[in-house]
Design goal:
Length: 567
């Protein structure tokens, strides 16, 4: 069985395919979304998801979230004295999802299709694949999130040719894609996005309004307080009821604080964010060469598209109502599961060919002869333009630029700037060519981008027939198989917290957090109910524990409620 995984910046989730279509796999807490957060305690126990977030509220230095943004980079995350890369932290999330899937499905699960944002470059895609491998998966395929979402919406089953736009506003990223379905072939025509725009920004907007109203200096907050206030703002944001305002509440120094933000005020403050949303939308339309009116369907993806303000904005921007028939939180994972099943060639799914586009322009550096017959280097020559449908292969011919030139360097670059130095360097191929006159030696350079968005560059010297190929590797973060196995072994001392104890643990952590927030009598009550629960846990009788857990949860709910009502 190949499962589909949406490894999100904020939330991750897994799905599998059944005869009745794809289904979400609930996690160890019985929930469908697992926050992409990791926390590690002094006993090398790894907590993932909601438990990790609860733990981070009390031990902020021992946890991390939002690490997907640093995927493939050399950024180091420090968790209680240990150091990890973003892909390693992601591998813990994947390990936890894998365990949950195995428990739920009652079988070993070793294969997965994992999604990545469409504009993830080569390095980030590879890092994601490695995260999967570190978690013990054979990564069957890396799929772009909008492609997965489009599959989930059943757009691959349309009879006529259709053009649709996927609007994915998640926790910290925004991603627009234009896809086209024609004769069973689904193509991504254009992608654009903003890596720093998402639900977080709306949360911050509420948070800032609240802090301002109560004259609290953001910079004076401790990490713990900052997390606490952020969580309160987050809760406030997700109230999508019929109220005409958002109500944010929090307790500080025993004092209960509240702010009411009208939806109209909120929309005004969010205008800047909406302006930023428009830019990638325009760019994707321009790149695909289509007008808004030529888009047949608009598909909403990402938790933030549940906000009424966002839906209203999208409706206005496109002059029509978007398709919301699939839960926007779940579309990507469901689509990845369908893709996994397609890979296994299940009968119940019509075969479609999926293509993707390369998110950035790939090219090389060239020297140009200027008017005064001077050689000017640092010019960028595009070979595969951004939004070229992949798999794709393009060849360009280059020539020596001066007499007796025997060394030619093919500098492989990614980016959109005219100048080579402004683009990202992916590597170099150095060739030795026969001593000859300028322009006499021809080198054909072929860039091939495969369905997994991995780049291969081939350079061929015409006169000698010599060919050099290079699979683009990121020297910094690429690992050999041995290095990877060694790192897996190193990380194996870290164990994911036992799943059967997870519901108890998450409550105990919540109790710990509330204890820090409470004072006086409430604190004493907390102490008492927590002790009682711990006492029953010690007895190790599953039925009694289940019953006590219910009581404990109710007590915590009541205490939390009391905290807000200000006694
Ligand atoms: P990602 O793809 O980045 O992991 P998701 O698609 O899971 O993110 O979206 C997470 C974001 O969606 C968070 O910022 C969260 O606050 C927001 N979100 C989830 N549910 C709601 C809701 N009901 N109302 C408003 N925002 C929501
Ligand atoms: Mg997402």
């Amino acid at each position: 069985m190949i499962i589909g995984i949406d490894l999100g910046t904020t939330n991750s989730l897994a799905a599998y395919y059944t005869e009745d279509g794809p289904r979400i796999i609930p996690n160890r807490l019985g929930e469908r979304l697992t926050p992409s957060a990791v926390s590690i305690d002094e006993n090398d126990q790894v907590y993932v998801g909601k438990t990790a977030l609860e733990r981070m509220a009390v031990h902020p230095d021992e946890g991390a979230s939002l690490f997907k943004r640093s995927m493939g980079s050399r950024k180091e995350f420090h968790l209680g004295g240990r150091t990890f890369s973003a892909e390693e932290l992601s591998s813990f999330v994947l390990r936890s999802l894998k365990e949950d899937a195995e428990y739920y499905l009652g079988q070993e699960v070793t294969e997965a299709v994992i999604s990545v944002p469409a504009y993830f470059n080569d390095i980030k895609r590879k890092a994601t694949k490695r995260a999967g491998e570190l978690a013990g998966f054979k990564v069957e395929r890396i799929i772009s999130e909008p492609t997965a979402a489009a599959i989930a919406y059943g757009l691959y089953q349309k009879k006529d040719s259709t053009r649709f736009l996927v609007f994915d506003l998640g926790g910290g990223t925004f991603d627009v894609s234009i896809l086209e379905l024609d004769d069973d072939i689904m193509e991504v025509r254009a992608v654009a996005g903003d890596n720093y725009l998402g639900g977080e920004d709306f949360t911050n907007l509420i948070l800032d309004t609240f802090l301002e109203e109560h004259h609290i200096d953001k910079n004076s907050l401790s990490e713990k307080e900052r997390l606490y206030f952020r969580n309160q703002a987050e809760k406030c944001k997700c109230q999508n009821g019929a109220d005409s305002f958002f109500r944010m509440q929090a307790v500080r120094n025993g004092e209960r604080l509240e702010s009411l933000i009208t939806r109209r005020d909120f929309d005004k403050k969010a205008a800047q964010l909406f302006d930023r949303i428009k830019q990638p939308v325009r760019r994707s339309l321009a790149d695909a060469g289509v007008r808004i009116s030529e888009i047949d369907e608009i598909v909403l993806v990402g938790g933030t598209t549940k906000m009424p303000a966002v839906r209203k904005f999208v409706g206005k921007l496109f002059g029509r109502l978007p398709d919301t028939s699939v839960n926007p939180d779940e579309a990507v994972a469901l689509g990845a599961a369908i893709q996994g099943a397609m890979k296994e060639r299940r009968e119940s799914i019509r075969e479609v060919i999926l293509t993707d586009v390369c998110p950035f322009t790939l090219g090389t550096e060239v020297s140009i002869r200027t008017e005064g017959d001077r050689l000017e280097s640092n010019h960028f020559c595009p070979i595969l333009e951004r939004n070229t449908v992949i798999p794709a292969s393009r060849t360009e011919k280059f020539y020596t630029v001066y007499d007796h030139q025997t060394q030619v360097d093919i500098h492989i670059l990614q980016g959109e700037s005219r100048f080579a130095s402004n683009n990202v360097s992916l590597g170099t191929i150095s060739l030795t060519v026969p001593d000859n006159k300028a322009g006499e030696e021809e080198i054909s350079v072929t860039y091939t981008y495969d369905v997994n968005a991995l780049l291969e560059v081939e350079a061929k010297i015409k006169s000698t027939g010599e060919t050099v190929t290079k699979l683009i590797k990121n020297q910094e973060s690429d690992m050999t198989l041995e290095q990877m196995q060694a790192r897996m072994k190193e990380l194996s001392y870290l164990k994911i917290h036992p799943r059967d104890q997870e519901p108890n643990k998450v409550l105990l952590l919540r109790g710990e957090r509330l204890y820090e927030e409470a004072t006086g009598e409430l604190r004493e009550q907390l102490e008492a109910v927590t002790r009682q629960f711990e006492y029953i846990l010690d007895k190790q009788d599953p039925d009694r524990i289940a019953e006590a857990r219910k009581d404990y949860e109710e007590a915590l709910d009541w205490i939390e409620e009391e905290l807000w009502s200000g006694q």
